[in-house]
Design the sequence.
């Protein structure tokens, strides 16, 4: 399957504690280019692992490599524009959808094609002028995705992108993600507590349990 | 403006009747504040008497160094007091100390440079005390709000950092709200001054027999000076303190327990 895809991230014996609790315990795993699903029950350290990948958090021990270079060697700001994280809960800035997109594009030094970003995230062009406080959670989630896409990232880190959505909205977001991959040359790392979602969207799977990577490999091998 | 009145200890003792009344109300309505009222009355007597003697000594010595020493002590105690209100802000002491120092020095420096007051202990001590006290309240309120705002907006701040924004950009809305809340109380009370309440300096001067025009003018000078010092203190405190929430790699630190 993705055996020959280049390695995007490599985690080497990564440990991290928060508030006296070991959230990640000597995790070693590779994440190849393409679509990777990080799965596991809640509290297994999935979101923390995702936050390590664009240096929103720092490991206490071990190292994380991105394209064969330690993350610590990258400028964190430039890295985050290339490796965009969309958090689990929508957290847009006050204002309109377009002002959010413009802010993000500006940070990445890019011009804004709001219509295209919205379309890629499955939103109508008319959403540009909408105030974010008047959007549903599902619409906010998509606006967050559109905002991340406005930076032209090479990797998208998605933290439970459908956790807050009903089934119809979930199916729509999954359709959007599948289309994104077809249309853009972009890799996706998706955190999910649902193995079925991993099956639908991933071609590589890392399974965490109690902060340890218990399994990682091609989808058909891990979720046989 | 050279007015003076004599207040006897007997007059002070007589005013204790009002303290007794407050304690009686508390006892009657079971507010359980009698102890606090007694402590407040005793502490205010001891503290004000002590500072009264200290000020008398400083006036007598008539040297700028004693004034500066007294103001430095006020700044240090102010920063310690304000830090307790900013418990959610990591390392709040140094930003507060710096904020009070800058606010005090620049406001006093400016009023002296503009020729509003002579650089003598008689002016510098009371004005300095008011400036530092108000700057302390403003910076304490601002940092208290900053701590609450950051803990309420963690998700939003981190989502903004995730876009490659700097800590300064991610914290800007939070810092703005904190700065506003530090300044707004004095601005509001300045708006209503003379209508809803008479400020302390004016009351003191009128009681001491000063001409009402002089009392009003001096009060205006102080209010304007305080507006400046409060803005400086809130600005310096928030600008320095928000950085303590972030690591050099532009990561939001874990919440203070």
Sequence:
């Amino acid at each position: 399957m993705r055996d020959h895809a280049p390695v995007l991230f490599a985690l080497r014996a990564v440990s991290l504690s928060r508030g006296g609790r070991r959230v990640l315990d000597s995790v070693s795993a590779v994440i190849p280019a393409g679509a990777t699903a990080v799965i596991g029950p809640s509290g297994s350290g999935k979101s923390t692992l995702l936050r390590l990948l664009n240096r929103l958090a720092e490991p206490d021990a071990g190292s994380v490599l991105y394209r064969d270079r330690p993350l610590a060697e990258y400028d964190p700001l430039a890295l985050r524009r290339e490796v965009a994280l969309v958090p689990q809960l929508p957290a847009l800035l006050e204002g309109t959808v377009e002002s959010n997109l413009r802010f993000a594009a500006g940070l990445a030094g890019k011009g804004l094609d709001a219509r295209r970003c919205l379309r890629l995230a499955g939103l109508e062009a008319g959403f540009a002028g909408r105030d974010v406080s008047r959007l549903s959670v599902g619409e906010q989630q998509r606006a967050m995705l559109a905002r991340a896409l406005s930076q032209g990232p090479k990797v998208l880190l998605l933290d439970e992108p459908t956790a807050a959505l009903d089934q119809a909205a979930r199916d729509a977001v999954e359709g959007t993600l599948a289309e994104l991959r077809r249309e853009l040359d972009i890799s996706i790392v998706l955190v999910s507590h649902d193995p079925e979602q991993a099956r639908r969207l991933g071609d590589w799977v890392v399974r965490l349990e109690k902060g340890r990577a218990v399994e990682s490999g091609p989808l058909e091998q891990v979720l046989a | 403006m050279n007015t003076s009145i004599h207040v006897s200890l007997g007059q002070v003792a007589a005013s204790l009747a009002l303290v007794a009344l407050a304690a009686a109300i508390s006892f009657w309505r079971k507010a359980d504040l009698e102890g606090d009222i007694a402590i407040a009355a005793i502490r205010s007597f001891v503290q004000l008497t002590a500072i009264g003697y200290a000020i008398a000594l400083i006036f007598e010595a008539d040297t700028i160094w004693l004034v500066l020493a007294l103001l430095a002590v006020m700044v240090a105690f102010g920063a310690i007091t304000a830090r307790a209100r900013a418990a959610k802000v990591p390392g709040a002491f140094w930003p507060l100390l710096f904020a009070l120092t800058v606010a005090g020095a620049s406001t006093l420096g400016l009023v002296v440079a503009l020729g509003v007051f002579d650089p003598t202990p008689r002016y510098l001590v009371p004005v300095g005390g008011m400036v530092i006290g108000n700057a302390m309240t403003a910076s304490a309120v601002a940092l208290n709000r900053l701590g609450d705002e950051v803990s309420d907006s963690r998700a939003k701040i981190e989502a903004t950092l995730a876009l490659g924004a700097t800590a300064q950009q991610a914290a800007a809305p939070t810092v703005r709200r904190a700065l506003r809340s530090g300044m707004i109380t004095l601005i509001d009370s300045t708006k209503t001054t003379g209508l809803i309440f008479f400020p302390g300096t004016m009351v003191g001067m009128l009681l001491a027999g000063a001409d009402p025009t002089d009392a009003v003018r001096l009060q205006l000078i102080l209010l304007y000076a305080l507006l400046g010092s409060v803005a400086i203190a809130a600005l310096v405190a928030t600008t320095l303190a928000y950085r303590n929430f972030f690591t050099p790699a532009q990561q939001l630190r874990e919440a203070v327990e």
In short: The longest helix of chain B spans residues 121-152. Chain B has two domains: 1-61, 63-245. Chain B has a mean pLDDT of 93.
